[in-house]
Structures are given as structure tokens and as C-alpha cells.
Amino acid sequence: MGSWRPVLLLVLAVVLFIAFLAIQIWKPDTATLPMRILKQRTVAASAFFAFTSQAGMIVVTYYIPIFFQALKEFSPTKSGVATIPFILSLVVGTILAGGLVQRIGYPAPFMMIGAVIFSVGVGLVTTWPVGVNHSVWISYQVLIGFGVGIGMQQPSMNAQIVLSKEDNATGISLMMFAQNFGGAIFLSVAQSVFTDELGRQLTKIPGLHLSKSQVVEMGATSIRNMVPQQLVSVFLDGYRIAICNAIYVALGLACFSSVGAVLVEWKSVKKNKNDIALAPGSAAHDKSEEV
Fold this sequence. Notes:
Blueprint: H1 4-26, H2 35-38, H3 41-71, H4 76-81, H5 84-104, H6 108-125, H7 134-152, H8 154-162, H9 168-203, H10 212-218, H11 232-263, H12 269-277, H13 283-290
């Protein structure tokens, strides 16, 4: 019989979320998240982009080290080192996009390009065989990191462009919340997909007397020691399929992030700066008055 606790928690989560929204609408002056901000198209689309793209990034960066440890026999330390290509390309993408946005002015195209590159990279990761070579797993991680990097800061930039100075802090906080909230939710979803698929794969292996809970609890680095030698290759292929199914969750999120990227308004950060500079009381405005 299933436990009543998860059902109770899910029901409470829905009820409390509805109550939170009702309070935001009922008390707009003291609302934590004013509806006037959330109903702004670019803010809502940017929050959706931040939610989906960062959730996808968390999922894929969680399961890639597990892939290395379980299937490539990497130690936890070595599997962490093996994700350096992702981290470096993420940093490069973030810096490059930041400079180009300041030069070009529009964050929207970088969100679109980032969503496409991210989706392609995650899709390619799902094709990894058990014996994937280093040139493949390095290059695919570079794609993922670069795609995530060039779009990562754009939601916060959009919030600053379209919102008033008084609402900027709230808009940026919303983007940060969306990024973290997405990862918290969908990592659990991916874990559920992984364990369910792993259970199905285990039932296909004759002579293997292991439950999916035993495999999950034993850890990725020690699974080979729990399986008879003659069944290792079949077991590892099943484990690979389970990991790929979990990464499909990240792939779906990466693809959905493009919806948010398409819906944001094409507004320039340069125009926003010019409006502030020419506002009454500013130095530029006073100078123009003198001329």
C-alpha cells in the first residue's frame, strides 16, 4: 500500500501555492510578487526561460558525473574533473554574451541562440554509448556549457530593461528564484524517471537478483562489484538507458526554454541607459539644457 505522506505533501503544496497567489492579488500594495510585474510579458517569458534552462542544466550536470562513475569507472574526484569542459565553456559563454549584449544592446537573440545550442548539446549526450571516448564527451559538454552560459544572465538583464527602477530588485529576485526553483523540482522528477527505468531494465536481465532500490543505494562507483561478471555488460547498458531517460528530462526543458526566449520583447539595454541619462536631474540632461 502506498504511503499517504507524499499525497498529503503534494495537496498541501497546491493549496499553499493557490493561497500565495490569492494574497498577491488581494493585497497588491504589500505583495511579495506584485501582479503588475508578473503580468509583464518579458518578465514572465524571462522567468519561464530561467526556470526551464537552469532546471535542465541542473539535471544534466547531475547525471553526467553519474555516467562517468558508473559506466567509465571514474572516481568521484575524476568525474568532477571531467566536467571542467562544461564549466569553462559556461564561463566563456557568460563573459562573451555579457560583452556582446553591452555592445549590441539586445539580450533576446542570445537567449534564442543559447536555447538552441543547449538543446543540441543535451540531445547529443543521450547518444553516448557505454564506451564513449573522451573527445566526444568533452566536445558535447562544451556545447552544453556554452549554450547555458550565453543565455544565463539575459533574464535578469531583461527585467532591468522593462521594469522601472523601483521594481528592478523584485524582477531580478524573481529570475533568481525561477532558476533555483526549477532545479529543485526537476532534479526530483529526473531521479524518479531514472529509478523507474532502471527497475524496468533490471527485470529484463535473467539471473540478476537486485532491486532498483539496492542499485540506487549502493552508489554509482560500486555497482560493478554487485553484479556477476557475465552480466556486467548487459547491466551497464541498462544503467546507461536509465541515465539517458533522466537526461531526456533535461532535453525537454532545454527545448521548452526556447519558448520563453521567443516570447521576450526585443528591447535594447542601450535605450534604457539613454533614458536614464536624459532623465530630469541627470548630468546629461542638465548639459543638454545648457546647450
